[in-house]
Amino acid sequence: MKFKGFGAEVVPFFEELALNNNRNWWLANKSRYDEHIREPLELLLDDLAPEFGEAKVFRPNRDIRFSPDKSPYKTQASAVIHGDEGSTSLYMALSATGLSVGGGSYTPAKDQMERLRAAIADDGTGAEIEDLTAKLRKAKFSIWARETLKTAPRGYAADHPRIDLLRMKGVIAIAEHPPAKWFQTARARDKVADDWRALGPLNKWLSAHVGPTDLPPTRR
Predict the structure, then answer these.
(1) Per residue in 43-94, pLDDT tens?
(2) Is residue 170 within 8 Å of residue 146, measured between CB atoms?
(3) What is the mean pLDDT of residues 194-209?
(4) Is residue 83 a contact partner of residue 74, using CB atoms and an 8 Å limit?
(5) What span, in angstroms and rounded, lies between the C-alpha atoms of 153 and 156?
(6) Of 182, 195, 208, nearest to 81 (Cα)?
(7) Helix, strand, coil shares of the chain as percentages rounded to 5?
(8) Whole-angstrom distance between the N-terminal and C-terminal Cα of the chain?
(9) How are beta strands 98-105 and 171-177 bridged, if at all?
(10) Helix 123-138 crosses helix 200-209 at what angle (to 10 degrees)?
(11) What is the pLDDT of residues 156-170, one digit of tens each?
């Protein structure tokens, strides 16, 4: 195991970046990012790869082409492990507000969304995911989606017992850990691993009942 902890500059770096989000400041401070954030993050992911798979580390640059916010840099460092063409994922992010660890189905395609809702509505498989999400909430995970309908999706009753899950366009579980001294120790890696293991049953359910998309990329 190579990861020994993140650097002491994590919170100060991201707080300062939020106030100085420009290329000149970034170039002057990039060595802090590399030493205290990027390099430890890569070591952490390398340590966990044998159990969880290879992760993709997101670039620090924002895509500002279609955004009114032209700030060029992200105020967090993050990585994801994808599975089953978008039906499952494992995720982590480090920022001034702490460490976020999550997973689930973030951007299901149309056919995946149809299968997800059918499985939630079914009394058997629906009871399973209801139990899984309840256990995750008890373990201090929040359950949400990138988008939630205000009303019941077409074809489903508004008084369905799992209507809250049915209105969600995906199922994501996130655990939030505020900044703490253990960020600078190997415990940070162990916490990510523990959270990802806790997400295992949810991702297993998603793999079994949603699976990969059958749609070509141009139709997603």
Answers:
(1) 999 999 999 999 999 999 999 888 898 999 999 999 999 986 668 999 999 9
(2) yes
(3) 97
(4) no
(5) 6
(6) 195
(7) 45, 20, 35
(8) 39
(9) antiparallel
(10) 160
(11) 999 999 999 999 999
- Here the tokens at position 17 are 């970046």
Q: How is residue 204 written in tokens?
A: 């297993």
Q: What is the pLDDT of residue 84?
A: 66
The verdict on pTM exceeding 0.85 is yes
At 219 the pLDDT is 45
Q: Pick from 71, 90, 79: which is nearest to 17 by CA?
A: 71
| Lookup result for tokens 């955004």 | 67
**Token duo for residue 5:** 């902890």
Q: Which residue has the tokens 């902890």?
A: 5
**Tokens for 152?**
């019941």
The tokens for 4 are 């020994």
What is the number of alpha carbons within 13 Å of residue 11 lying toward its C-beta?
10
